[in-house]
Specification:
This protein is an all-alpha fold and 275 residues long. Among the domains are: 49-92 and 108-170; 198-275, Tetratricopeptide repeat domain (Serine Threonine Protein Phosphatase 5, Tetratricopeptide repeat, Alpha Horseshoe). The protein contains 11 helices and no strands. It is elongated.
Amino acid sequence: MSPKNKGKFGKAKPTSVPEADEFISGMDRLSRALKPHALRLVVFFGVVAVIVVSYTTWHWWQQRKLTSATELYGRAVALSHVPLAPEAQDEADEPKKNAPPPDPRGLPSEFATAADRSRAVLGALEELAAEYGGTAVGQQGLLLHGETLYRLGRYDDAIARYREYLEAGGPAELMLSAREGVAYSLEAKAVQQKDAKARQAGLEEALKAFQEMQPQGEGPRRDEALYHQARIQAELGRKDEARKSLEQILVQHQESSLKRDVEMRLTALSAAPAK
């Protein structure tokens, strides 16, 4: 190196990188500053850890409950679709040739009677209600629970399940179905009554329930609600009211799938003697 350049490179400025002892000194100052609060910090981070672990455990448990509840509900639905033995089938059942393939969960291939099938469905639903009744799936199972009890002729229990669903709340269409289930159950219960006054009182209650099924004039399935009201009104001997309800369907619900049934009932009302 030439003498004239020696001064230029020989007196370089020191870099700005901190020395190691300066870094250690900073950590030491931080440590001394936090030392009086050490216990509070330990408690704080301990509480945070407990909260995180608790939430994670709770979330895992909720997911596990939901999965188990869904499996039980799915089993109940699958059981409700198991076909009946050929001699027990009626118009409401699908032909056996259209039955689904064997279920991997070990469901029976068929049931001897509709009552046997309903009892099997009920068993799964009762387990669902007992173990997971508080879950969303458990609440949804109340509708199928009510329908199954209705099929078994346990009308008071069916009404209780439908009303339990109504109290919990749900989608509008399913709430409508629950109200319909209450009305059907009240009607079936009334028809069973041997005492004439008890039977009439029961039919009055069923009529009110069908009126509450869909009170909105333009609401979904309003035509069905009116049709059911007409049936009960005719059963109670109120032919004029029944005719009015049926004619309301023809005027306000001209595209109703019940139009043919309505016309047939109007004809029958005109021909039937007054009670």
